[in-house]
Design brief:
40 strands, six-stranded antiparallel beta sheet, 2 domains, mainly beta, single chain, Immunoglobulin-like, Neuraminidase, globular, 565 residues
Length: 565
């Protein structure tokens, strides 16, 4: 047969996206209480940081811009952590109670950059995800102004954990409760509460066909989702998995995307954080003579972190004293130390709050309340469900007090002592009436407020405690103001004015800038470069109004490099 002379044709466009290899090093700008401190500043005076903060930024193959942002994305850059003052807009105790749809319990909370609050838990045998506005009402932009119910067709579904990425994506993790075949699950939602179409449907994770639990979730700096919990591989063990944006297990993590870890035999993980180098840190409980706190540190590849050597490479087991100890939460300090919180059974069989700090290299830190200690709200049974290191170095523990009938918060100083600036004695107990009352993991919201959710008498409660703040600089040093000044720039072009060495002085307000809340704000861009790197040196300035309340104020800031600019 002869070939047809009416030939068909088609075309296809092939595109290739080359990611710019960006550089951002803020090693000259350590954060935390030892960052660029003003020292003691008296009311009615002003101050500028004594040394500049130097940031190396750029790109190997494209233009780039350096941006400076408020870490919370809203409010003001410098704030004082809450002293326990109730946000009465939420209720007399700063608390609002919600009936989601049955018997409710909230376990975790996360605060978005715009200040909205995402709470997860369980209700009437299903999981739920709810988002609230800063005034404590349901967000109409999230799932049609109602909580999102997670019903996976099993008898009991629990959403145990939530985390929010820089772009507003929401990661959730949990499991089916005992009574059915218990399996872990992980999901990703868009900013409107819908399933992320790229990630796909909620993923069930059951590597050995046994019982599995997901207890905590965290994004790493590359947007991957890390889940921690337990699995049964001969015996119950720590388990970690890492998921890519497309909803598949990440093969660069232990080649399989998951790893289970035997810590002294029977063990399980209850909380996870990721490190600045994308390592994975889990805390939980391991068996020995008694149950003990167990901390596991993995590197980005999922292997035991070789620089962390405690009871073994990549792990440390901590016994608070004779009796069973159960670690519920972990938080990482700016200097790489880890604070562990949970419960400990004392010599008369009462449950107490337990807390310990472990050095970045694995040893127990004896400078923090002796290294490991039991704390007490009262004479009755109590525990900590979550722990959080605040931007100012204080340690916040949340849970239950008074034989589990009241919600409780404890705050310690960076040295492990009760913080007298928090409700005068470092302890805040909230009486919710008859029945059990408790709080889950805490979070820091806009302007230094504390946000924490839990349950009270079978309903969900969300607690908001106010902080206080300095307004941002707005072109003039009026009242209490906080700002940044670009002192020098080694290359590229400046968007902020360059003051010149040692010329960032309060007397020249034209050189100062307020800190932008969002990366889209024009004032967020400090400087730009063509291909290559540049170093920007900044100082921070503060003017204190004569009536400003005393205390330690912090400015948690984020540097961001974007290429191409």
């Amino acid at each position: 047969m002869a070939a047809s002379s009416n030939a068909a044709s088609s075309s296809v466009a092939v595109t290739l996206s080359v990611t710019s290899a960006t550089t951002l090093s803020a090693t000259g700008c350590p954060y935390g209480t030892a960052a660029r401190s003003f020292g003691t500043v008296l009311p009615g005076t002003n101050a500028v940081t004594a040394a500049p903060c130097s940031v190396l930024f750029g790109s190997t193959n494209d233009t780039s811009s350096l941006r400076l942002l408020q870490s919370d994305g809203v409010g003001t850059a410098m704030f004082r952590m809450s002293g326990g003052t109730a946000d009465t807009g939420w209720g007399p105790l700063g608390r609002r109670v919600f009936s989601i749809g049955g018997t409710d319990n909230a376990f975790d909370v996360a605060v978005q950059r715009d200040g909205k609050i995402v709470v997860v838990g369980t209700t009437a045998g299903n999981g739920f995800v709810a988002r609230y506005l800063t005034n404590g009402t349901f967000d109409p932009a999230f799932n049609g102004n109602t909580p999102l119910i997670i019903d996976r067709g099993t008898a009991n579904d629990i959403v145990m954990a939530v985390d929010i990425a820089w772009d507003g994506s929401i990661a959730i993790a949990g499991h089916t409760a005992p009574g059915v075949s218990k399996n872990a699950f992980v999901g990703k939602l868009t900013t409107t509460g819908a399933p992320d179409p790229t990630f796909g449907a909620i993923k069930t994770f059951d590597p050995y066909g046994t019982e599995d639990g997901a207890e905590s979730v965290a994004f790493d700096s590359l947007g991957r989702i890390v889940v921690a919990g337990s699995t049964v591989n001969t015996q119950t063990r720590f388990m970690a998995s890492r998921w890519r944006a497309d909803g598949t297990l990440d093969p660069t993590f232990n080649t399989t995307g998951f790893r289970d870890i035997n810590v002294n035999g029977y063990s399980f993980a209850l909380d996870v954080v990721t490190t600045p180098t994308n390592g994975v840190v889990m805390v939980g409980t391991a068996s020995g003579t008694n149950l003990d706190y167990a901390l596991v540190v993995l590197n980005e590849a999922g292997a035991d972190e070789p620089t962390f050597v405690g009871s073994a490479t990549g792990r440390q087991v901590v016994s608070l004293a004779a009796g069973d100890d159960t670690a519920q939460g972990v938080s990482m300090q700016a200097d790489g130390k880890f604070v562990l919180g949970g419960s400990s059974i004392d010599g008369v069989g009462a449950e107490r709050v337990g807390v310990a700090r472990v050095n970045a290299t694995g040893g127990v830190d004896s400078t923090f309340g002796g290294g490991a200690q039991r704390l007490s709200y009262s004479s009755s049974n109590e525990y900590a469900e979550g722990v959080l290191v605040q931007p100012d170095g204080g340690v916040l523990l949340s849970g239950a007090a008074d034989n589990y009938t009241n919600a409780g918060l404890l705050r310690l100083t960076s040295s492990g002592q009760p913080d007298a600036t928090f409700d005068t004695d470092g302890k805040l107990v909230l009486n919710g009436g008859a029945g059990n009352d408790g709080l889950g993991r805490p979070a820091i919201g806009a302007d230094g407020r504390i946000i924490v959710a839990g349950d009270v008498n079978g309903d969900t409660q969300v607690l908001s405690l106010l902080g206080s703040q300095y307004p941002d600089f707005a072109g003039a040093w009026t009242g209490s103001r906080f700002a940044a000044c670009l002192e020098t720039l080694s290359a590229g072009t400046n968007t902020w004015p360059v003051a010149g060495s040692n010329n960032c002085v309060i007397a020249t307000p034209a050189n100062w800038r307020g800190i932008a809340a969002q990366s889209g704000d024009a004032t967020a861009i400090v400087a730009q470069t063509a291909s290559g790197t540049a170093t920007a040196a900044l100082r921070f300035g503060l003017q204190v109004d004569p009536v400003q309340s005393p205390g330690t104020y912090s400015a948690p800031l984020t540097f961001e490099v974007v290429a191409p600019m």
